[in-house]
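Limitations
The structure tokens in this dataset are predictions for the assembled complex, not deposited experimental models. Users should treat interface geometry with appropriate caution, especially where small molecules or nucleic acid strands are included. An illustrative entry is reproduced here so readers can see what is and is not provided.
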Amino acid sequence: DQQVKQNSPSLSVQEGRISILNCDYTNSMFDYFLWYKKYPAEGPTFLISISSIKDKNEDGRFTVFLNKSAKHLSLHIVPSQPGDSAVYFCAASGETSGSRLTFGEGTQLTVNP
Amino acid sequence: ETGVTQTPRHLVMGMTNKKSLKCEQHLGHNAMYWYKQSAKKPLELMFVYNFKEQTENNSVPSRFSPECPNSSHLFLHLHTLQPEDSALYLCASSPALLSYEQYFGPGTRLTVT
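Predicted assembly:
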């Protein structure tokens, strides 16, 4: 049973436009959500996170939105840059799971110049 | 060296071989993790160590044997592996066991022939 799902394996966007990556979860005990970015031949790197007490967190060009009632979160990148091309992983955790992160399958974002 | 390093970066081994993966973190963190990423699948947590003590084994087959001699080093000893064990093995660390943000190494790409 996959508790965190990223239904789009890939997304292609023009440079300067908005990229929207989506993530759905099923476990209502999750209360902290993270996005990681992974370039080829490198490990995932932490990008941005959000606690369930918030519905939005912004860091520069990156904004994460959380809709608890829909069990859905999204990552917005605006404006998108070619250097943003990478695989983006959504991850979730909860107090009952300690530091265990449950990851989605990832979405390959390609930003075209 | 900074961050989390892993050696080797690539490994090809036969099913009867014994090999070890090494992870070292230079961040002063107390918790370390092994993850497995198979093609098109989410990252799967394998083992968790906190202050050198194993706190979690996620039902991993005994042909994978972790070792954590100190808080900076983590090993994964491999023996009698199967072709389906071919995957990217990622090491991560975090400041404490309940820290949500984990720092990943670049991974070891393992191929079992």
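Some entries come with short summary sentences. For this one: Chain B has a mean pLDDT of 92.
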